[in-house]
Amino acid sequence: MKRIDMMIFDFDGTLVSTGDDLADSVNYTLRTLDLEEKSKNEIIGFVGDGISKLMERALGQDALGLHEKAMKIFAEYYDKNLLRNTVLYPHVKDVLKYYENKKKIILTNKRHKFTIKIAQGLNIDQYFSEIIGIDSLPFSKPDRRITEYLLEKYTFSKENTVIVGDGINDILAARNGGVLSCACLNGLGNRNDLLKMKADYYCEDLREMTSLFI
User: Fold this and answer.
1) pLDDT score recorded for residue 160
2) Which of 16, 42, 87, 101 has the fewest Cβ atoms within 10 angstroms?
3) Are 122 and 87 a contacting pair, CB within 8 Å?
4) Dihedral sign (CA 15, 210, 178, 197)
5) How far is Cα of residue 68 from the mean position of the Cα atoms in its chain?
6) d(Cα 166, Cα 152) in Å, to the nearest integer?
């Protein structure tokens, strides 16, 4: 087992199952704009780079002129409905409690205020020293500077730091920053794409982390 001092967790698809509420909010936005709705699976495929990219992908090339309006509609609706169907993935609290003496950070490409609202609503905010959203710093995943910022701030070594997430950006952020990566295969990210990324560690269930890291 590998000793880890700092654990950097992705949010959507890793700690929380947000897919239903994201898809609902995207389709509400599309309906409001008199555009055709999309399937949940298609919308989930757009997740990972923040809501601006999410809406850009959902609108498609023909409706990109509506992007600013769509962002406003989405943000207002999602803010009111982000806990309607969103729940923790199995064993998340058990894992966070198991590593209660480790430095834990949330690093997400979700907006900070949405992340905080969900983390507080699901009672996991107290487990983390810091919650960083896509709008918290001038750079975001997978930029190596985000990892460098955390390593410098908390003075931990690269060898004893891991980024845990379900998306390609999480693996790239770890690789770009020179830290370890642990890919979650049952989140929102594409399983085959994650396997091709050759992460340092893989887990089907977050609980498996307890047999990988001490």
Assistant:
1) 98
2) 101
3) yes
4) negative
5) 23
6) 25
Mean pLDDT of successive 10-residue stretches along the chain, which has 214 residues: 97 97 98 96 93 95 94 98 98 97 97 98 98 96 96 97 97 98 95 96 96 97
In a domain, 30, yes or no: yes
Q: Name which of 35, 28, 81 is nearest 62 in CA terms.
A: 35
What pLDDT sits at residue 208?
97
What is the maximal distance between C-alpha atoms in the chain? 53
Is 205 part of any domain? yes
Tell me which residue range forms the domain holding 170: 6-17+86-211
CB-count burial class (<10 Å; 0-12, 13-18, 19+) for 190 = middle
User: Is the peptide bond prior to 142 cis by the omega test (within 30 degrees of 0)?
Assistant: yes
Give the distance, in angstroms, between the CA of residue 96 and the centroid of all CA atoms in the same chain: 16
Q: Are 184 and 14 in contact (CB under 8 A)?
A: yes
Claim to verify: residue 90 and residue 133 sit in the same structural domain: yes
Q: Which helix (H) or strand (E) holds 9?
A: strand 6-9
Scored b (16 or more CB within 10 A) or e, 57-86 reads bbbeeebeebeeebbebbbebbeeebeeeb
The per-residue DSSP string of 51-119 comes to HHHHHHHHH-GGGGGGHHHHHHHHHHHHHHHTTSS-EEPTTHHHHHHHTTTSEEEEE-SS-HHHHHHHH
Domain CATH code at residue 201: 3.40.50.1000
